[in-house]
Predict the structure.
Amino acid sequence: MRYIKSFIEKNSDNLKLFLRINRTIFTIITVIYLLLFIINQFWNKIFEEYININAIFILLLMSGVFFLFPIIKEEEKFNEKRKLERADIFLFFIMGLICSVLVWVKIKDFGTISYIISGIAGLITLVLPILIFYDQ
């Protein structure tokens, strides 16, 4: 354990640079993966023979692990309470609406039950972040 601590102390500048670069890479890979995933789902696997979306997902997971390291340390340092603002609720509402539409588009052939399922999915997407926010 002390070897790891001494390694971190000696290379703290390089690690900070790596984490800063990783933050940028993580956001780019997240946007690319989500766009490719949505295109892949709704336009009948248009690029399946050219791009392996699972490889991008593995890169996203590995980058996400390193993305969380500084966030966890900052959370331990700053444990201040934050109020739920109007912009947060608006963002959660938009996320729920987008989720409802995406689920409905995917299962619209089921008839009336597709409206119920998409409404429940949107409601879960709306309520879950609010509950997680107040759990802090």
